[in-house]
Design brief:
10% strand; alpha+beta; Heat Shock Protein 90; rod-shaped
């Protein structure tokens, strides 16, 4: 038999158990001192009850019977906290009810056993145990004299065991309700923390994507212009002055974008990239192309269609053209670039193709492998943006360059 500090099983499993105890069936659910206090309390009631029965009994039963019953009751009482075998607590309660049929010395232990089983076991187990306790005391009243008439004794016996059964089941239901409420509270807190963490990650990702789309483009223009200044120190002074002006304007614009991001993050923790006004539109693609040409790029731009496009789709289309020009400038410097925007009813298509020798940018996939995943920040962020709008992104290398083709559907 295991130590009596283990919680009794409920039809093989305890009714009340913490999540950790469910994972570990050998974990104690009731402190050891609970058993010790209960046993001492029952012993304190059993000893004077036995003495009183021995002194006042008029049934002719030998006194040794009451003493033996008292000893057996105290010895069987630890079965209520045993877990080996699983039915030990129920068996112990039945044994105590049988001992109560022989002598009132077992009444304290039998009463506690009925309450204990009602506390920890379902009604289908607790009710038969309560009936066994009632019958044990009824048999005791039939052959040993009691202070009340038999009828009244049986009525009181029935009332006491019914009260023990009801009290134990109420105690059990209340404990289950409290455990359920605590478990729900823990789950709600965990889910809330998870949602907050996800929201923070998503917001950081969006801000990082916006910063990359804006700053990376401007810085790539600065790099291209600075490269021209480095390799053409003998250029016409007017050209050098114009290039220096472009660098100055680009640095100023990049600083303005960075200040906008910092201002938004400091002013309102809940403010996201939507607060980074103004958001670009399809008309701003002309500005992108003009900046690329001013930096010395060979860019051809073609736009067809005049459909009214949702704002989110416009932003995504602009970012597509921006990312395509940035990648072409970074990986195929000096190559010709062609930008095509088609704004039809129900779909916007943006294609950026270059014809210069280049390395496949990270995140674009291998040649001939459209839409392959990668780790490049730009194309990865663009792929996420397009996916959120239900669109498709095809980025692939070809024999004479690289093509970025994005389709953004929308409901007209």
């Amino acid at each position: 038999m295991s130590t009596p500090t283990d919680c009794p099983p409920l039809a093989g499993r305890p009714v009340l158990a913490t999540a950790a105890a469910r994972r570990d069936g050998n974990r104690r659910l009731v402190p050891w001192w609970t058993f010790a206090v209960s046993w001492l309390a029952v012993a304190a009631l059993t000893v004077p009850a036995t003495v009183g029965i021995v002194q006042q009994d008029g049934s002719g039963a030998p006194p040794v019977l009451d003493v033996v019953v008292a000893v057996l009751a105290l010895a069987a009482f630890p079965l209520l906290w045993s877990r080996v075998p699983r039915s030990a607590p129920v068996l112990g309660a039945v044994v105590l009810a049988s001992l109560a049929a022989c002598s009132g010395a077992a009444t304290p232990a039998s009463t506690v056993a009925t309450l204990h089983v009602a506390r920890w076991y379902p009604a289908r187990t607790a009710v038969p145990v309560a009936v066994a306790g009632f019958l044990g005391h009824a048999v005791q009243a039939l052959w040993r004299p009691q202070a009340l008439p038999l009828g009244w004794w049986l009525l009181c016996d029935l009332a006491v065991h019914a009260a023990l059964l009801g009290w134990g089941m109420y105690w059990q239901a209340r404990a289950q309700l409290l455990w359920s409420l605590r478990d729900r509270a823990r789950r709600a807190e965990a889910e809330q923390a998870h949602r907050v963490a996800e929201a923070r990650v998503a917001e950081r990702t969006r801000i990082a994507r916006e910063m990359h789309d804006t700053l990376a483009h401007r810085l790539s223009l600065l790099a291209a212009t600075a490269g021209a200044l480095q390799y053409r120190p003998d250029a016409d002074p007017a050209e050098l002055t114009r290039a220096a002006g472009l660098v100055r304007d680009g640095v100023s614009s990049a600083l303005d974008d960075l200040r906008d991001v910092v201002r938004v993050l400091r002013a309102d923790p809940d403010a996201g990239p939507d607060a980074l006004a103004p958001q670009p539109t399809l008309d701003d693609v002309d500005r992108l192309v003009a900046e690329a040409r001013a930096a010395g790029g060979d860019v051809t731009y073609e736009r067809t269609g005049s459909a009214v496009v949702p704002r989110a789709v416009e932003v995504a289309a602009f970012r597509t053209a921006q990312e395509g020009l940035t990648n072409a400038r970074r990986h195929a410097p000096g190559g010709a670039v062609r930008v095509v925007v088609v704004a039809a009813a129900g779909e916007v298509r943006v294609t950026v193709a270059d014809s210069g020798p280049r390395l496949v940018p990270a995140g674009a996939g291998a040649p001939g492998e459209a839409g392959a995943g990668g780790t490049g920040t730009g194309l990865v962020g663009l792929r996420e943006r397009v996916a959120l709008l239900g669109g498709s992104l095809d980025a692939r290398a070809r024999d004479d360059g690289f093509v970025l083709d994005v389709r953004l559907p929308w409901v007209a």
